[in-house]
Fold this sequence. Notes:
Elements: E1 3-8, H1 12-23, E2 28-34, H2 37-47, E3 51-55, H3 63-73, E4 78-82, H4 86-98, E5 102-105, H5 120-128, H6 134-139, H7 150-160, E6 170-175, H8 179-188, E7 197-201, H9 208-218, E8 222-225, E9 229-231, E10 236-239, E11 245-251, E12 258-264, H10 275-285, E13 290-294, H11 303-311, E14 315-319, H12 329-335, E15 341-343, H13 348-353
Parallel strand pairs: 1-2, 1-3, 3-4, 4-5, 6-7, 6-13, 7-10, 8-10, 13-14, 14-15
Antiparallel strand pairs: 9-12, 11-12
Helix pairs in contact: 3-4, 4-8, 4-9, 10-11, 11-12
Amino acid sequence: MSIRVLIVDDSPTMRAILMSRLREQGDIEVVGTASDAAEGRALIKQLDPDVVTLDIEMPGMNGLDFLEKIMALRPTPVIVVSGATQDGNEVTARALALGAVNCYAKYDPGGKLALQDGGELADLIRDAAQVRFDARIESRPEQRPRDVRVGAASVVAAESRLSIRRETRLIAIGSSTGGVEALQVVLGGFPIDCPPTVIVQHVNPRFAPAIARTLDLACPAHVQAADMDTPLLAGNVYLAAAASCHLTVKLDRDGSTLLGKMRRGEPISGHVPSVDALFASVAQVVGAEAVGILLTGMGQDGARGLLAMRQAGAHTIAQDERTCTVFGMPRVAISLGAANVVAPVDRIAGHALNKAA
């Protein structure tokens, strides 16, 4: 059975291009197109599509407001289609935090509007079509206000401070489809003085800096994009953001400080950056003083790396099926015996900070 897709975009040219990119996919059918949020809402009700592609930079109803209505009234997998502007990147990152399952860039890296994209959009749609919303909606914690930081931070820090495991030297997290929303929940449970934390989130690297800024608003700790050789400090969270680069960890010359290392490399487990590459380096360098967390995502990247961390003595956690957007990466990790703990997303922070949580 074909995956039924609704395209919502105010540009007739862009609607035609997106349709062209999907036309030759035998397992995908574009069942309708809409030029604005009002038309899109009506067609979602009428056509009940499996996946919606949503241009959030449309006139009329704000794209974020429309996305929130979709998630509240008729939860449907949404892929955000973004332009090349900085403002567009920021809005896209906030949309991912609100529940959009992935993002797609309208233009190629050279800024051109190509007729074909090598199947990227089709692959994102196939991933999105596997999303299940029923259990996730029931278990999703109430969203914090998008632009409020201090109040939420002080409450979470007070709740979490007593349970922090002081022997933890580093926390490493891997996530993919639906990961930005999950990261917001997990990092929101970290105290302001959390152990240094490194993250690989599968996403177009163009959006990663904006995602870091969006997560920073929701978290007590400071979230930032990882640099080429970044000292990993308590109270800081580092997100892999450089194009075509793996994020790994190493020790400085005197062996006293952990560094985040961004270096170009070939795909590992199909990805650059790769969760497996990060976790393998953490297993080797940090060993039993680390915590590894594998969140929602398609495929198996991170599963073997999490196993390497557990074998090195680290405390390892996988997100449970009920709260995953896509139970792919955690499923493989669990099947390998890589996870000490399997937990819903809203309890992962507690398990990371205290083995007995």
